[in-house]
Design brief:
alpha+beta; eight-stranded antiparallel beta sheet; elongated
């Protein structure tokens, strides 16, 4: 009698598909989204509180862009607020693109390296850690380095992806990558 029960249980387990996300499946899904363009976003104008982290970032951006001669920056301070207005100069490289709300300056590309061991799975979801690295620096890379002084080319950085189980399949829900696919 135990033999008759084992066959239906085994058949049901095989019909349900894999209950765990495999590293190979996760790597296939994530790898297709790379390489991505790493870009510096430059607002056309921004008003921030003096002394805030955003104020420090915009001041560093102003310094890097005016030093390169690519942008003119008008900076006005009113009480505890500072306003920055960035305007591209004719000397700006072709890497500077106008986007809604400002400009985008290509700095480099990031490529997929590998999935890290130890997928964190629960019955209905999974979290995957993986590595990327910066490659192919472009004209805007010195500006990017000014904003992110600890980042170096070819150095790896950890990223994360989340999956959700839908029926028999694992579906990639998203990653914490903030850059878009390279052309």
């Amino acid at each position: 009698m135990p033999r008759l029960i084992a066959v239906p249980v085994l058949a049901a387990a095989l019909a349900c598909g894999p209950s765990r996300l495999t590293r190979r499946e996760a790597e296939r899904d994530i790898r297709k989204d790379y390489p991505v363009v790493v870009a510096v976003r430059i607002p056309a104008s921004a008003q921030v509180a003096k002394g805030s982290s955003e104020h420090t970032r915009l001041a560093a951006l102003q310094d890097a862009l005016t030093r390169a001669g690519w942008f003119s920056v008008v900076r006005a301070e009113n009480g505890d607020q500072a306003e920055f207005r960035f305007m591209a100069n004719p000397k700006a490289p072709r890497a500077v693109k106008a986007v809604p709300g400002g400009f985008e300056l290509r700095a480099a590309e990031a490529e997929f390296v590998r999935i890290l061991p130890g997928l964190a799975t629960t019955p209905g979801s999974a979290r995957v850690s993986y590595l990327i690295r910066l490659v192919r620096p472009q004209e805007g890379f010195p500006v990017f380095q000014r904003l992110h002084p600890g980042v170096k080319l070819y150095e790896t950085k950890e990223r994360h992806a989340t999956y959700r189980k839908e029926g028999q399949d694992w579906v990639l829900q998203g990653t914490d990558e903030s850059f878009k696919k390279a052309d």
